[in-house]
Amino acid sequence: MAPIRIWHQSFTDLTVMPIYRKTLSEHAKAVMGSEAEVRVHGLRPGTYAEACAPIAAIRHRWVAAVQELQVADAALVAEREGFHAMAIGCFFDPGLREARSLVEIPVVSLGESCALAACSLGRRFGMITLCADQSADYSDMIHAYGLERPLRAHSPLSPPLTNSRWKPTRTPPARSKTGLTKPAREWSPRARTSSFLQTAYSMNSWCGADG
Questions:
Q1: Which CATH number fits domain 4-110: 3.40.50.1860, 2.60.40.2310, 3.40.30.10, 1.20.1250.20?
Q2: Burial of 100 per CB tally in 10 Å (0-12, 13-18, 19+)
Q3: By three-state DSSP, how is residue 57 classified?
C-alpha cells in the first residue's frame, strides 16, 4: 500500500532557513516512518525582505493577508499533484479557511489542532506566545474557533523569542523551557507542563492543559 502523501506548508521562506527545513523533514520522517511521505514547502523565495524575520513582518495584517494567498494557492497545487492532505505549519493558521474552501483534501493547521488536542487533555488550557503582540491575535483566533471558554490564559515568553534569533535543534533551549513553565505555574499550580503541546521545533507557540 502506497504511503499517505502530506504537503507541509510553512509560512516562511525556507530557502533562507535551511536548518529549519532540514529539521522539519527529518522529524516528519522519524515520526511518520513508512506510513506517510511528508513534503516540506515554504513561501516563494524572496517573500520577505532580507534580514526581516517573518514574525516581524506579519505583525502588519496586510502583509499577512497577502502571504495567505500563497497558502491557498499551495492547497490547490497539493490537491492537483495528488497529495492526500495538507498541514499548515504556522500557529496563526494562515489561509486555513481559505484553503479548506478551495480543495476536497483535508487541511489542518497548528493552532486549531493544538487547541483541540489541549481540550482533550484537560478542562482548561493556556497558550504561550513568542511575544506580546501575538497574544491578541491568538485570542481572536481561539474565539473564532468557539474555544474561548476553555482558554484559561495566554502569556508571552519573557524575553520574547524571534525567528531571527532561533537556531533550530531537537529540543528547546533551557531558556525557552523556563519561559514555558513559569507562566504555566502562574496560571495554575496544577498545570501539567509535561502535557505541553509544542509546535514544530518551537518556532511558534505552545499550548498546555490544566486538568
A1: 3.40.50.1860
A2: middle
A3: helix
Rounded to an integer, the average pLDDT of 140-162 is 79
Residues 112-121: pLDDT tens digits? 998 899 888 8
Residue 200 has pLDDT above 50, yes or no: no
Rounded to 5 degrees, φ, ψ at 131 are -150, 165
Closest CA to 199 of 3, 10, 53: 10
CA distances from 108 to 88, 100, 114, 184 (A): 6, 9, 10, 26
CB 79 within 8 A of CB 73: no
Cβ proximity of 95 and 69 under 8 Å: yes
